[in-house]
Amino acid sequence: MSDYSLVCWGPGVSGGVSKVFDRVLPGPCAPWTSCTCGVWSGSAPLCGGGTGYAAVCYPCGYSPQLMVLTPPTSDSSASSHSRWTKRRPSDLAIALISAGIGSGVLAAIAAVVAVYCLRRRRSGASQDPGRIHAEPIGPAPRVERRLSALLSKGPNTTVEQFPLVALRGATDGFSPSHRIGSGSFGVVYRACLPDGREVAIKRAERRGPVAESSSVAARRANNHEVAFVAELTLLSRVNHKNLVRLLGFCADGGERILVYEYMPNGTLHDHLHKRAAPLSPPLASWPARLRLALGAARGIEYMHTYAVPPIIHRDIKSPNILLDDAWTAKVSDFGLSLLINDLSSSGGGNGCNAAAADDEPCMTAGTVGYMDPEYYRLQHLTDKSDVYSFGVVLLELLSGCKVIQRFEGSGTPKNVVDVTVPHIEADRMHRVLDARLPLPTPAEMEAVAYVGYLASDCVRPAGRDRPTMSEVVGVLERAVAACEEHDDGGGEAVLSRSCTDGSTA
């Protein structure tokens, strides 16, 4: 009735007939006041033209039935198709244009939504609470396995697990006032533990999400994990007076912290290149410099020869040689170190250490100026790579020059190897020696020249032509003995170039 149509049916009516009447009322007219549930819309003009305030009352409780759509029959489909095809061409064109516009709008909306979702996904990745700048619930699986292996040793291990709250308290919340250095792994803090021990705390760097892309953050996080596990694994199994001692670690709340014995006299690099006059005691005389070199060499020899399995440091340099309160040289920073057993199992190439054994990609590592060129060129790592790097440190000690700097008469920076070795090979040692020290005595000069030849042998291009670290230690021991015998008034030691060439006798 909503369309005011009249349908007749019943006996005597053949079929249903439907006719739309122009003026058919849906109900009787009645005064407005009697319509308690309202009036039919538009019925007032039909009830006396609007006079007398009459209208058709709206039935109380009436709810119009919703039309239920049923699938069209074949006849209705054909009828629908015929109605579509019989439309005028202009109607068809309008319909096609409308459909095209609608499809274009939908495509544009879909593209906008896709771009928005992609940006949200990338943003979510860079702000993922599991990334390096946040605090995951616990250590990564690889780190967790290493920690479990260490702690399972029980009282036999000397590595201690420190609670994060204790380290925060010892550094005043990792305050900058406790900061004493930094490196690729992170920041180093000086602290005093509640039991009175003075320690160095190396904490992995933690950057915010805006500081770097997600890929860089992931790579940095992986490097920190590998370095953390490498130092923890290697230093927990070695003990030598010329290696910095690892006291413990902390992996609470996603932290990667290593705790070492504190070295109050800093690094060899700082004393050689940053400290103003006067020179520090271990650098103030030629015998003292040779003794310092001997101490560092013994630490490296221990890693190569006596550690089980042997260890290749990969980053020997003057910043990684620390000095304790007695000026004893100690090798530090084992984050790039590799086990020789792992090199053997990988075919002698780059190798992956035990820390990186879980499908971690390995790459050439080290520091510019100290890195073995053969290792860099051929991607083949041996213990002779550490020998090369130590040879560069010897040249620093002899010349007082930085590993890379602008030398007199050269406008471009040069490596200390390229500048000093030609003079050493030509027996012009006086052109190499650090001018901040007095000229050596004749006995000291012989010992210094002896060490100069050793340094030249250490930095030979081919690894097979370099001495082993045991041979290096033997040469330095003889050089130090020659200086000390002369100081004690003893007989002069006979030193010759042949003693540095593959002989420790």
TrEMBL record:
Membrane-spanning parts: 92-116
Record's keyword terms, sorted: ATP-binding, Kinase, Membrane, Nucleotide-binding, Serine/threonine-protein kinase, Transferase, Transmembrane, Transmembrane helix
Matching InterPro entries: Kinase-like_dom_sf, Prot_kinase_dom, Protein_kinase_ATP_BS, Ser-Thr/Tyr_kinase_cat_dom, Ser/Thr_kinase_AS
Pfam families hit by this protein: PK_Tyr_Ser-Thr (PF07714)
Transport keyword on record: no
Molecular function in Gene Ontology: ATP binding; protein kinase activity
UniProt: ATP binding residues: 202
PANTHER family, sorted: OS04G0439600 PROTEIN, SERINE/THREONINE-PROTEIN KINASE-LIKE PROTEIN CCR4
Domain named Protein kinase: residues: 174-480
Protein name according to UniProt: Protein kinase domain-containing protein
Species of provenance: Zea mays (Maize)
Keyword Membrane: yes
SUPFAM superfamilies: Protein kinase-like (PK-like) (SSF56112)
